[in-house]
């Protein structure tokens, strides 16, 4: 299997004033295409930092990161934006939907940045929302949806561009067990059709649904 | 993200904060409306002056006593020691000496009291010759004009006639002019020019025109001096030739340039120079208001960038490039500016319709000025939006997403 993510000795150090915080201390990680990997670990261990680097939202202080065969460690921001747009779908703990836009418009957003025509955008957004079971909530704004529904809108937004990689940072952290089950079922479906999924969680039973679990502790991967 | 999407999301953001957006625009609204109004007032005043000066006649040169060393032109001439005489006027009428002069009318001017029956009316008394009518481009609405043999005849301006005789026909009526009974032989047609310019103390529609000699004997000072000599050139092409002929002839007669010659064009220039100063001054105040408006836009856009830092982070995570973010905020600032400009123009045009009624000052609304005002408003919005927009563009996606 081809590797979609190849990280070699990635370090990330935050400098806050005089204080230096080493959030990642030499992470080497290989994730193959189509894998479903859970990243677990205690609070403050560097899970989110790792996900931000995997998602090209942040750049490592040192080390090498090859995404889908291309080195992304030194790319300019405009290029990274394009990679995030075409290859990666994000699902955040806080949903991060734009409150002024309808569910459908929220899902259309990444397509707008990809330059897709409005009618095609609309068609694909409706399709994605149908897939997450929200075909009857197209015109609702996030404030008019339950937490579980909002997170399903976020999942729809993550998959609407057909990305190779879906990154989820504690997607069930703000949801009750029923809503969590809905969202995790969606991830199972996505995995079944060949998407690579990296899911961050500290819940053991969530991690267990993945093919493989990696444990991170103090900025290092534990065996 | 194409331009239409960017534009739509800009409008949405403005609609989401309606009150704040309107308050932000206020500076621009005030600035643009005052620009529209001041330019309109300036142009209106110019139109008015042009109409009044056109009403003086055509191809006209006005010779007044006193030299014109001051920039006020003929204005200082009236009332100062009169060095012009009827002999000067006669000399100018000589076709051999001044071939480009078509007609000459010397005038004396004074205040007079007219009495018809029990009605009193104060008007200006013009003493002149029969050539006054064609030289000044006037026509009669009734009766006839003065002839060379008239003595106790008077021609009234239309306003004067209606003040004295109301709706009745004035021609043939008796009227006492400065205590001397005279017969009204004619009534002038209205010029249409609203009121007198400062260089023309006699209102064009409120005058009593009498023969020159009669005016002199009424004044009790039988000198031969006159207030001004109106000279009509044969055509517009020979206006400057006529000017030079008059200048040479009078300088020769007087041995001194103790007179000044103004053309309608130069009168217009003088009047407009004053107007222009005022317009520039008011325009400066309007420009300051626009500057304040621009700073308001910048302030609100900086607030918007801080407020929407998570939104910016999210958009970047979803694939917005720095230039797409910059464009989004620039368009928003531009839309704010343009809306302010449109509101300002609406207010200014409304003012332009209301002001003439309040101030008696004409305001003319010019389409190029309005287009320029809207352009300026757009430029201000964008210009002052550049800094906030590039701040938003420079944010790293992760810092923007993390901030609470
Ligand atoms: N912008 C930053 N500046 C300074 N230190 C940071 C910054 N971001 C993260 N850190 C530090 O890096 C370490 C790892 O943070 P991270 O957010 O990756 O933890 P996490 O594993 O996601 O924790 P949690 O489960 O609570 O979300 C923490 O010690 C944190 O304080
Ligand atoms: Mg975290």
Automatic annotation (TrEMBL), chain A:
Domain of life of the organism encoding this protein: Bacteria
Keyword DNA-binding part of the UniProt annotation: no
Keywords from the named record: ATP-binding, Nucleotide-binding, Transport
GO terms for cellular component: membrane protein complex; plasma membrane
The ABC transporter domain, residue ranges: 5-223
InterPro entries for the chain: AAA+_ATPase, ABC_transporter-like_ATP-bd, ABC_transporter-like_CS, ABC_transpr_LolD-like, MacB-like_ATP-bd, P-loop_NTPase
Family annotation (SMART domains): AAA
GO molecular function: ATP binding; ATP hydrolysis activity; transmembrane transporter activity
Record protein name field: Putative ABC transport system ATP-binding protein
Automatic annotation (TrEMBL), chain B:
Annotated Pfam families: FtsX, MacB_PCD
Ranges for domain ABC3 transporter permease C-terminal: 285-397
Membrane-spanning ranges: 21-43, 280-305, 333-355, 367-387
Keyword annotations from UniProtKB, A to Z: Cell membrane, Membrane, Transmembrane, Transmembrane helix
GO MF term list: transmembrane transporter activity
Major localization class: membrane
UniProt-annotated location(s): Cell membrane
Family: Belongs to the ABC-4 integral membrane protein family.
Descriptive protein name: Putative ABC transport system permease protein
Species: Actinophytocola algeriensis
């Amino acid at each position: 299997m081809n590797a979609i993510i190849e990280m070699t000795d990635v370090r990330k150090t935050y400098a806050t004033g005089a204080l230096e915080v080493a959030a990642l201390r030499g992470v080497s990680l290989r994730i193959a295409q189509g894998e479903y990997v859970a990243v677990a670990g205690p609070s403050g261990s560097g899970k989110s930092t790792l996900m931000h680097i995997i998602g090209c939202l942040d750049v490592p202080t040192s080390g090498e990161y090859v995404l889908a065969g291309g080195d992304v460690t030194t790319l300019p921001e405009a290029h990274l934006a394009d990679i995030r747009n075409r290859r990666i779908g994000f699902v955040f703990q806080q949903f991060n939907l734009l409150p002024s836009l309808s569910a459908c418009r929220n899902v259309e957003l990444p397509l707008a940045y990809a330059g897709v025509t409005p009618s095609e955008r609309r068609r694909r957004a409706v399709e994605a929302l149908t897939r997450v079971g929200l075909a009857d909530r197209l015109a609702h704004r996030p404030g008019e949806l339950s937490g579980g529904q909002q997170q399903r809108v976020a999942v729809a937004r993550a998959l609407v561009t057909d990305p190779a990689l879906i990154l989820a940072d504690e997607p069930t952290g703000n949801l009750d067990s029923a809503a969590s089950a809905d969202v995790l079922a969606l991830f199972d479906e996505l995995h079944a059709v060949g998407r690579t999924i990296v899911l961050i969680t500290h819940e053991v039973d969530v991690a267990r649904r993945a093919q493989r679990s990696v444990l991170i502790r103090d900025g290092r991967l534990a065996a | 993200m194409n331009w239409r999407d960017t534009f739509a999301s800009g409008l949405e953001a403005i609609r989401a904060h309606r009150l704040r957006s309107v308050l932000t625009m206020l500076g621009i609204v005030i600035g643009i409306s005052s620009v529209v109004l001041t330019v309109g007032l300036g142009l209106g005043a110019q139109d008015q002056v042009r109409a009044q000066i056109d009403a003086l006649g055509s191809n006209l040169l006005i010779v007044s006593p006193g030299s014109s060393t001051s920039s006020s032109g003929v204005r200082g001439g009236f009332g100062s020691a009169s060095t012009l005489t009827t002999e000067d006027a006669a000399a100018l009428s000589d076709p051999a000496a001044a071939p480009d002069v078509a007609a000459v009318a010397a005038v004396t001017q004074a205040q007079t009291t007219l009495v018809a029956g029990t009605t009193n009316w104060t008007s200006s008394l013009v003493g002149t010759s029969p050539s006054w009518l064609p030289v000044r481009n006037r026509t009669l609405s009734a009766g006839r004009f003065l002839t060379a043999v008239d003595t106790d005849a008077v021609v009234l301006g239309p306003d004067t006639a209606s003040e004295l005789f109301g709706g009745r026909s004035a021609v043939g009526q008796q009227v006492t002019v400065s205590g001397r009974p005279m017969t009204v032989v004619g009534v002038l047609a209205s010029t249409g020019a609203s009121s007198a310019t400062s260089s023309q103390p006699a209102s064009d529609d409120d005058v009593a025109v009498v023969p020159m000699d009669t005016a002199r004997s009424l004044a009790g000072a039988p000198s031969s001096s006159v207030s001004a000599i109106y000279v009509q050139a044969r055509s517009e092409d020979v206006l400057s030739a006529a000017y030079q002929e008059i200048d040479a002839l009078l300088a020769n007669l007087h041995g001194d340039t103790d007179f000044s010659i103004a053309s309608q064009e130069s009168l217009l220039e003088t009047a407009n120079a004053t107007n222009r100063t005022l317009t520039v001054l008011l325009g400066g105040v309007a420009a300051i208001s626009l500057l304040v408006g621009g700073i308001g836009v910048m302030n609100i856009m900086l607030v918007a960038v801080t407020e929407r830092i998570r939104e910016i982070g999210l958009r970047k995570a979803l694939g917005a490039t720095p230039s797409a973010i910059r464009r989004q905020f620039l368009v928003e600032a531009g839309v704010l500016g343009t809306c302010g400009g449109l509101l300002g123009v609406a207010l200014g045009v409304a003012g332009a319709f209301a002001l003439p009624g309040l101030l008696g000052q004409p305001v003319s609304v010019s389409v190029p000025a309005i287009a320029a005002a809207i352009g300026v408003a757009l430029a201000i919005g964008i210009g002052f939006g550049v800094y906030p927009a590039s701040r938003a563009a420079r944010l790293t996606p992760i810092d923007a997403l993390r901030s609470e």
